[in-house]
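Notebook entry, structure prediction.
Reason for the run: the old model in the group folder had no record of what sequence produced it. Starting over properly, with the input documented here first.
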Amino acid sequence: MEEIRSLRLTGERALFMSRGLRVVDTIFDDGESPLKESRDIELENCMFKWKYPLWYCRGVKVTDCQWFEMARAGVWYTEHMTVDRAVIEAPKNFRRCWDLTLRRVDMPNAAETLWSCDGVTLEDVSARGDYFAMNTENITVRNLRLVGNYSFDGGKNVVVEDSRLLSKDAFWNGENVTVRNSFISGEYLGWNGHNLTFENCTIESLQGMCYIDNLVMRNCKLLNTTLAFEYSTVEADIVGKIDSVINPTSGAIRADSIGELILERDKIDPAKTKIIVRA
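New structure, fully documented this time:
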């Protein structure tokens, strides 16, 4: 494998269509698309300071690298890529990628990041930004710390574990979503979803879990959660109190107590939902 080391590369397409290349301790600056259309490359301790560094690439291994703010829209249409230990300041990263793994990555400006990707693994990732992972499919997440609204909108086949999400409107329009051992705070959680499961989670949500087809909640806590389950088919086993429940469509809801139960006969059939209050 050819190696490039300790350079500062400028100008458009500085290493365009590289093949079998290892790049170490190098700065990509002042020039768009330096590695566009490259194949089988390794990048170690590099810095990206300008736009579109890795478009239409395949077989990319990135270790200990940094994306600065102007390296926006950095990785689009790229396949088979692993990023380990990185700080990515640039927004709008990772668009329409396939087979992507991010480990030990910090993204302080992750607006519109991870859109329309397929086959994504996130491990020990920190991110801040709205619309994170919109329309992404087949994504596995562990130890994600996310601050940003509208996350995972339209996601399909999503598994999230051991994570903390401060995210209004998370998992809207999601399909086949499972969240385990996680904390979520945000209004309107999960609306318009299909097959959403929450296990061992702590949730705070105004009007959360509404308009969902096949919602399952196992051993979850609902803190300060009001007007929950409206027009949802639900099987929920809640530890502790639910502040209020409104117009579930069918199923069963179990809790230690329910502060307010609203069942409007002109809107739903109350007989289709079993309410069990353990206290």
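Summary: The radius of gyration is 22 Å.
The old model has been moved to the deprecated folder.
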